[in-house]
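User: Structure please.
Assistant: Input sequence and predicted structure:
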Amino acid sequence: MEVDFIPLSYEDFDFQGKNYIKIIGKTRDNKRICLIDSCDVFFWAILKDSVSEKKLKELHNKIEKIKVENESRVSKVIKTEIKDKNFLGNKVKAIKIFITNHKDADKFSEKIKEKEIKAIREIDLNYITRYILEKKLIPLTWHSIKGNVITNIDDFGGLIDSLDVDLVIKVDKISETKTQHNFIPKVLAIDIETKEFEIGKGEILMISLVSEGIKKVLTTKKIPNSPSFVEIYKDEEEMIESFIKHTKKISPDIITGYFSDGFDFPYLKARAEKNKIKLTLGLDNSVLKFSGGQNPRGKISGIVHVDLLKFISVAYSQYLQSETLSLGEVSKELLGDKKIDHEFKPTENMSNEDWKKFFEYNLQDSILTYNLFNKTWNDMAEFCRITQEPLFNVTRDGMSSQVDNYIIHNLEKYNEIIEEKPRHEEIGKRRLREKYEGAFVLQPIPKLYENIAMFDFTSYWPSIIATFNLSRSTYLGEKKPGKSDFLEVDIGNKKYYFSKNKGFFPEMLEEIIKKRKQYKEDYKKLQNNLVKARSNAFKLLANASYGYQGFFGARYYCPEASASATSISRDYIKKVINDSEKSGFKVIYSDSVDGKTKVIVKKNGIINEEFIESLFQKEDSKNLLGKEYDYKRDIEVLTLNKNGRSIFKPINYIMRHKCNKIMYRVHFTNNWYIDVTEDHSLIGYERIKNNKLKKLSDRLIEVKPTEIKKKLNSIVCLKTIPSEFLRSKDYPKEVYEFAGYFIGDGSFMRNKSHTKNNKDYYLRLSLGKDSSEVFDKLITPLIKNGFIKNYWWSKSREGDLVVNGLKLINIISKEFRSINGKKIIPDWLFHENERNIASFLRGLFSADGCVMVRNNAPVIKYTSIYEEYIDNVRKLLYKIGVSHSVFKENTINKYKGYSRGSYSKNIILKDRRQFIKKVGFLLERKNKLMNIKTNSSKTKNIKDFEFDLQSVKEIKLIDAPEYVYDLEVDETHCFFANYVLAHNTDSIALEMNKKSKTQALEFLGSINKKLPGIMELELEDFYKRGIWVTTRGGKIGAKKKYALINEKGKLKIRGFETVRRDWCNLARELQNKVLEKILNEGNEKSALVYTKEVINKIKDRKVNKGSIMIKTQLKKSLSDYKAVTPHVTIARKMLAKGMPVNAGMLVKYYIAESSDKKALTRDRAVFPDENKNYDIDYYLSKQILPAVENIFQVFGLDMSDIIKGTKQKTLF
C-alpha cells in the first residue's frame, strides 16, 4: 500500500526486546493512520590515533561479544563496523556498534573500557531522534509511505487492537513528497476552573472545550436557565468521565491549553485519581502521563499536547509589549481579544447571574486559547520542519535546545559524530569557568532630538561567528599554532586561536542567516504567512546561536568562541561610531554596564541561580549597534525595593557587549568577590548617628569601586530569597533532618551482591560522641513512622550506626545521590518550603557545622571541601533568610601527612538570630553555645530589613577586561549580583544632523562594504523625533529610557515604567499621552497643559474611579509574604471573606483617604466596590509625579512644584 502521510505524534515502544516506533498522523483525505517502523540502533566508539590493525581486530571481536542482561530482556551487539568519520572537525577512526535496544546503550558503553577508546558518543540520543535521523520522516512534512497494512490484532503484542485509528501500516519505504500542501490540524482547546489553586485540593467546578464547531462548558453546578453551551452533571466523577468521552468523540490531532502542563492537566489527573477514574485520553486508551520533574510535561499517546504558554514564552515573548505572559494580556496583543471580566467570589455566595458569567468566563478562556493556537500554528509547524523534532518537544524546548536540534539533524553531510550533551558534573564545571567581559560607554544627553536613524544589528553577532569561523570544532587553543592558516583573537588577558578551515557550525550559521534573509525578501513579495513563519524561525535560530556557544548546557559549548565574537565586535562597533561622527552624524546613545556575575532569577514561578550570560539562551536576543538585546517578559530578577525587601522584579531586557575599561575586583572575603568596571556602582549603606536620615532610601548610596574606602566600607548584601510557588515532597521533618545529617556524616553501604544488582539496602551514619542524642531525636521518630525497619551499631567504629528500611533508603538513594554514586544536595530541595529546608539544614549543621566562641561571642560555621556543597548550602540559607559570608582556608588539608590538594571552605553565619529561630542544631551542646548572649549592635538598624551588610576586604585592579552585562530592571534599577546589590545602566541611536535619508542609506552602504564576510548592518527605521530623559532627580541622561516616533506616527518606547504593576491606568495613560504629544508636536507645551488638567481633575475628585484602580500580581502564596504591602492586605481581606486567593492572581484595589493621618498606605487600600474618597495626595505624589517627572525635567520643569502649585524651578 502507498499513501501520502504527515507525521504528528512519535512514540517509541519495545517488542520482544527490540525498539520500535509508532507514528500517528494524517493522510491527504484526513484519515488517521499509525505507522509502525524501526531503525538501526547504534553508538560510536572513537579510537585514539594509531591503533594497530591487530588491536583493532581484537577490539572488534571483544565488543561483539558484549551482552547486557535486564529483567525483561537481554540486549546484544548485533555487529560492528569500522568507519572513517569526523569528530569536532577532526578526522577519526571509529567503531560503529549496532545493538538490539537503545535503552541499554549506556550500559554497553560502561563495558567498553579499553585504553584504545578515546570517547563513546551518541549514547544519549533518544530513539525518536535517532529514528528521524535514520529514516528522514520529518515532523509536519508530507511523505509518501509504502508498506503493508497490519490486520492481525496479535501483531506487536496486540498493540493495534487498542488503537483508535483508521489503518496501521508496517513501513517499507519512506520518501518526502515533491509538493508540500498546507496542513490544518484538528485542535481541541481546554480550560478548567477549580475551587482551589493547589493541585487537586478542591473540586473542578467546570471544564470548557472548544474545537471546530464545538463550544461547551461541562459543570456540576445546576442553575435555572443555564446557557445553551453548558452541560450539567450530577457530580465531579460524571463530569470528568464526560470530558473523556467528549475528547474521544472530537478525536483531535492536538489538545492545547494555556499553562496546561502546570495546571489544567495535573489538576485533572489528580481529581480523576481522587474519583478513581482513569484519565484515558490516549488513542490507545492509555492514561495521561507526566515527565520532567520541576517542569512537568503532560503526554497523551497519539495526540499531541501543546502548552501554548511554553511556546509563546520562547518564541514570542521578546516581541510582545504585554506586561506579563498571561492569557488575557497575550490575547489582547496578538488577537485583539480579551478575557471576560469576572469577579471571583466564594461559590456559596454566587448568584445565578454570577454563575452564568463564570461559565462565559471559562468558555472564553478556551476560545482565546483556541484562537491563539491558530495564530501561532505556522510558527510551531515551521520550527518542527526546520529543527526536525516532534511538535511536542519543539513547543517546550528553549532556544539552546532548538539550536542543538538543528545542528544534530544537519551534521550528516559533514560526516560528523554527534557530541554528547553535558552531564550534571560537566555543567557544574562549566558554571565555574572563567568568564570574559568587555565594554564601551557613551552617556546620552537628556534632550528632545530631531531626525534620528536607528541601526539594527539583529544578525550582527551570529554573522561574526560565521565570518570569522568561531566554534568548538575550529578552536585551536591558547597556544599559537605552528601552521600559518589560523585566526588570532586578542581578548585582553589572553589570545585564542581558531582554524580558518570552515567549521560545520559557522557554515550552518551562515546558511541560517542567508535563509533568513531569503525568506524575509520572499515574504515582502508574496505576503505568505508560511514564508513569514519560516523567516521568523531562522531569525530566532540565528540570534540564539551567538549565546548558544557560551551556554553551559550546549552540546557544542565553546566560551572561547563566544568571548572572541564579543572581542571582534568591539573594534567594528567603534569603527561604526567613529565613521558616524566623521560622516556628520551625531551619536546620541551607546553604553555598557556591570561585570559578569551570578544573578537570582524567577521564571514560570521557579527560582534559580544563573550566570547572566546564560539568560540569553532561554529566549531570543536583539542587537542594536553591536549590543545584543534580549527583551524579556517572563523572567524576573532578585532586587531590593525602597522598603528594604527582597523582591523579584521583571527584567525588561538583558544586554551585553565588550569593554576596554579599567576593571576592579572587589573582595569581600578571600572566596567572595565581584568584578566591576571603573565607573560601575555598587550599593552601600550609610550608617547615620542620631537617626538624622530616617528613610532607608536616603541611606542606600551608590559607590564606585575607587570610592568604597573613602565613602563607606560596607556593601549591601543578600539576606533573603523570597519564596516561590512551591511543590513540596511533604516528607516528615525527620526525613529532611536525616538527609542533611547523611550529607554531612553518612555513606551508602553496598556489598558485592548489592553492587551487582545496583541496589541499596543499608545506610551508615557516623554519629561519634553524639550517638545517643541523635538516635533519640532523629532515628527513633523515623522508626515509629516506618521509615527505618532495622538498625545496628558498628563493632569496629564507635558511634557508627547502620540502618535499613526501603522507605527511607529509596528516598536517600534516589534523591540525594548522583548517577556517579556521590552524595548530592538535589535541585528540588531549593524549591521546598521554609520548614523543610530548615529541617535539612538542621541535620547538615548538626553533622558538619560547629559553634566557636570568639571574643565571648558565638560563631556558627559550616565547613566542606566541596565547592558544590558550599554553593548549595549558601542558596538554602538565603531561602530561609539567613545572611552569611564565605571564606577559604589558607592551609591545605592533610591527613596523616597525606594531602589530595584540597582546601576547606567555610560558611560563617552573619544572622545568628534567624538561624536560632528557624534552624538550630539537633545537639544541645551546640545549641547552648549558639545562644550565648552578646551586646553587639552592629545590625540593630537593619535587623528588620531583608538585606545585610558586608565589609570590603580589598580592591584589586584586574589586568584583563571581561564581559559586561546589563539588566534593565523595573523601578529599582539594581539587582543582586554575586549576592551583593549592584546598580545597572544601559542603549543607541544616531542624530541625522541635517543629513538626508539618502545620505544615511549611503553611509549604511559604505559601512557594509567595509564589513568582512557576511557581516551586515541594517537600518531599523528613521524616526522624526526621540526623547532621552534624565535619571530620577538627576541631571544626567538615563541610559535606559527613551521614546521615539517614526514617520508613520508609530511610537517605540523603551525603559519607561508603565509596566509597573502598582501604577493605575490614569498614570499609565498620562505618561503615554505626554510622550505622544511631545514627540508629535516637538515641544512640551501641549503635554504640560494636559498634565495640569489631569492634576486638577484629581484635586477636584473628577476622575473616574475605574482609572485609579491598581492591579498587582500576587507572586507567591499569601503565607509566604513577610512584607505587608497594599495588595497583600487586600488579598488577606479576600481570604477572610472566603474568596479564592492564589499565587499568580491579580489583586485589584485603590488607595482611600483615612482620618488617621499616620495610617500606612497598606492600611488605606480598599476594595474596588467600597464607596470611599480616594487619597488625593497619594495619587499625585505616588502615581502622577513618578510617571512624568523625568520627562519634563528635560525641559527644565520641576513637576513637584507644579503639583504643589508653586514656582517652577529650572534644572538646566
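The chain has 32 helices and 55 strands.
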